[in-house]
Design a protein that fits this description.
single chain, alpha+beta, 5 strands
């Protein structure tokens, strides 16, 4: 996440039953997920613009403050929608999401970034974006 993202909290699910996606399931969910991510990046961009303009809660402009609060509420709803699908949002600006998966008995993350046509990468749970590897390296016959 970028530094600015630290100001927005994403809800942590108390549910310990994390959904696990096969590559085929993740790609099937992608049209829906990508629409949500498009909305997230758009709303997040507006929030950043409001911050640059000083349109924050506690300011003198009640209309701008209401717009900011509405945008923050909308962002929260969108992030909740991703969590309901079982997807983890990693970066608001890039539109980076991870789909939890299991490969050869270990947890991994199938990784997708806004603008990509399908799930083309994966990484270990502790690797992040820099550790992305092509999904071709996974044995996908189990999907």
């Amino acid at each position: 996440m970028t530094t600015e993202n630290a100001y927005i909290k994403t809800p942590q699910t108390a549910d310990t039953d994390t959904k696990s996606f096969s590559l085929a399931q993740a790609n099937s969910a992608l049209p829906y997920v990508s629409r949500i991510v498009d909305d997230i990046t758009e709303v997040y961009g507006r929030i950043l613009e409001m911050r640059r303009n000083g349109d924050l809660p506690g300011g003198s402009d009640g209309g701008a403050e209401a717009a900011y609060e509405t945008a923050m509420d909308r962002l929260s709803v969108l992030v909740d929608e991703l969590h309901a699908v079982g997807v983890e949002l990693k970066d608001f600006e890039l539109g980076l999401v991870d789909f939890p998966a299991i490969h050869e008995g270990r947890d991994i993350l199938l990784c997708w970034k806004r603008g990509e046509s399908g799930i083309g990468h994966w990484h270990e749970t502790d690797a992040g974006l820099a550790g992305r590897q092509p999904v071709a390296l996974l044995d996908t016959e189990e999907d």
